Amino acid sequence: MKPLIFLLLLLSSALALSTASPGCANPLPPDTPTPGGPTTPLTISVPSAGGLRTYLLSLPLNPSHEPSPLILAFHGKDQTPSQFETQTQLTDPAFRLPNSILAFPQGINEQWLGDPTAPSRNERDDIAFAQALSTEVGDKWCVDLARIYLVGFSNGGGLTHLLACDPDVSKQVAAAAIVSGAFYKDHALRGDEPLFGLCNKGDAPLPVLEMHGSADPVVHYDGKGTPDGETYSLTEWLGGWRERNGCARAQSELKRDIHDGSVQKTVWWCGVGKEGGKDVVVHYYIRGFGHGWPSVRSQDDDGQRYGPVEWNGTSDILGFLAGKRLGGEDRGVEGREETRDEL
Fold it and tell me: Is 333 exposed, middle or buried (0-12, 13-18, 19+ CB in 10 A)?
């Protein structure tokens, strides 16, 4: 073997070991799900988050025993983790991120912090639950700590935003993806503490993708009020994330039609050199789509999502996440293509 190739392989192995969680060196615990088998219900005690909390866990078939990427997937309001697993197909071998561990947390009363009817953070801290869950999975099983990802739908997408804005969580997350995100103005929420009106993420860019239907009847694209309360418009929300990620003066804003013209995809490339990166903020404007997860399969919520569609959102989301790692070069598949008309 040539000396340079050997050194590169050695360096790659050293980097992998340096981001391995404590669980990589520990024996498997008794409650370990069957690798490659169905998701398994587990519990964790988080006093500040309501006591005993539950989640579903899926482990991959991973004969190499290399550290696995971890995806925390947050269901929407009035959903169960099992329903969200079925809706997203994140554990389906046809879509699954290679070697990934997937955790589907359960919201109390099937809702999360950030919904107008949910208790305040002082009463029930779902951010603490997510932190504790991520730590527990990494302590018990072998996780690549440079590849922890967040995925959320609707109210779960709102919690994903809050986690990405948390000063501690944001330093541990490589990227986040949200579908039909519910981002409420603070005056619509319980409690006096600011939630969506305040973001204290770490200094490093945190890549974010959001998909939203132009005809969403639940979380309106333009942010107009709903029976539950006023939300941020997607234009305002995306502007906030561009600024947080150092894209306020973006080098490139690229718009192109994809999926046979049903989606306008906007990609922001921001910064230069080691501090910069491509697709730091990505948005899918889904023409004529409602409130739901885009997929080719019929689903129970077809009446409000105005679906199915001719493409699978899960494939695009996992393609986005796959190239992201903490402190590493972007390895995604986004490309510079011709600009199309504005939103």
Answer: exposed
For residues 11-38, average pLDDT: 82
Q: Give pLDDT tens digits for 140-151.
A: 999 999 999 999
Percent of the chain whose pLDDT exceeds 70: 87
How is residue 174 annotated by DSSP?
Answer: S
Give the mean pLDDT of 92-109. 97
Amino acid, res. 132: A
CB 163 within 8 A of CB 177: no
E strand segments, 84-161: 101-105, 143-153
**Neighbour-count burial of 83, counting CB atoms closer than 10 A to its CB (0-12 exposed, 13-18 middle, 19+ buried):** middle
294-302 LR contacts (CB < 8 Å, sep 24+): 294/179, 294/211, 295/87, 295/89, 299/87
Any bridge partners for residue 16, and if so which? Answer: none
Q: Is 218 exposed, middle or buried (0-12, 13-18, 19+ CB in 10 A)?
A: buried
Radius of gyration of the chain (CA): 19
pTM of the predicted protein model = 0.90
- The DSSP secondary-structure symbol of 20 reads B
83 in helix, strand or coil?
A: helix
Q: Residues 241-255: pLDDT tens digits?
A: 999 998 866 567 889
Contact present, 101 and 70 (Cβ < 8 Å): yes
The three-state secondary structure class of 203 is coil
pLDDT tens digits along 328-339: 656 544 433 333
How many CB atoms neighbour CB 168 within 10 A? 12
Closest CA to 268 of 52, 259, 277: 277
> Is 90 exceeded by the pLDDT of residue 3?
no
Query: Any bridge partners for residue 267, and if so which?
Result: 254, 282
Closest CA to 309 of 343, 263, 269: 263
